[in-house]
Predict the structure.
Amino acid sequence: MTREKMRIVMLGCGGFIGSHLLDRLLAENECEIHGWDLADYKIKEHLAHPKFHMHRSTISSPAALQEIEQEIEKSDIVINLAAICNPAEYNTRPLDVIHSNLFDIYPLIELCAKHKRWLMSFSTSEVYGRTVASYLPNNNYEDPNLFELRENETPLIMGPISNQRWTYACAKQMTERLIYAHHMESQLPFTVIRPLNFFGPKMDYIPGRDGEGVPRVLACFMTALLDNKPMYLVDGGEARRTIVSIHDAIDALLLMLKKPHQAQNQVFNIGNRENEVTMAELADLMRQTYARITGDMNYKEHPILTISSQDFYGKGYEDCDRRMPDLSQAQTLLGWTPKIPLTDALFETMDFYHQNYA
Ligand code: NAD
Ligand code: UGA
């Protein structure tokens, strides 16, 4: 923290990352937080905290913007987490996704620029789109220059407009560009974070219990295990992801708050290179882990089927092939290295879902 008591505006504070950030900020730091979200069920335990003030409203109405501006004037930093960020919605609610990740955020960027307040904005690793390697014959993954994701070098490559999967990535990219333009033209202090698949308790809803639709992969596989239904590998489960524990990720965010001079005016990948898996490997690892959690060895053979992306997500879906982050920015500037292995992150997360939903 820069001064004794930091004042924070947190937008989208009731979601997965917001709930974990609040846990740590309120437990470990002297700070005063004003949070905005429509949902508060993941942060119930903090609602009565004297240092936390919940505004249960959208961030996009003119009345809310007025209220947010008053708070921004008094605050040191604005942390923006608000978004629609579930891949099943990118091609099925494209206009809502673009509004949520671009147009709803633009007035907030302007307010931060006007008052010269540090804007920490959550973008996504999806801004990189597909790797160069994936467009080459035989998908050449031997040369890291063709697939490693470097914040200030890697080109951002997205598919055609008809593949509406890219509405989210494109809106986030435009938001990054607007933030950067305001930085260059009016000295807006900023930090852009590109998370790579944070996993942890409270990540997503379980369909049929506390939500409807198709959540992110962790909750999809978890639902299959809880409901004794097959796990589905989209297009054979060859896509790769690097998974980082939410606790490692929150460590990185807290370091940014502690080291504003290193964190400001930078873009950071936050991920874990050691935890790379294909989705087929993830499904297998999850059924093995669930057998350990429940003591029921039948889960080791839980059925895994394959399904086409068209059947699973509908028309307009296209996948990111691989996300291998270069983490040298976060290591050099913040002194951050993720530590939690995938097996531990999965055990903790799946145990949470087992305790709460089984
Ligand atoms: P989440 O869906 O759990 O949280 C987002 C929160 O924003 C929700 O609680 C939602 O109610 C709130 N919100 C959305 N629109 C709002 C509005 N108009 N007004 C008020 N609140 C609103 O998502 P998350 O996983 O916590 O992600 C947070 C941010 O990080 C998002 O910007 C997302 O794009 C980005 N991100 C997350 C991951 C990840 O692995 N979790 C990866 C890449 C990017
Ligand atoms: C996610 C979301 O876009 C965002 O939360 C975030 O911005 C981004 O991660 C990120 O970390 O940067 P993605 O990893 O594609 O993107 O989303 P998941 O739903 O978790 O899917 C991961 C992979 O699993 C995809 O290949 C998907 O096709 C596959 N999948 C998903 C399955 O094989 N089976 C399922 O049941 C669900």
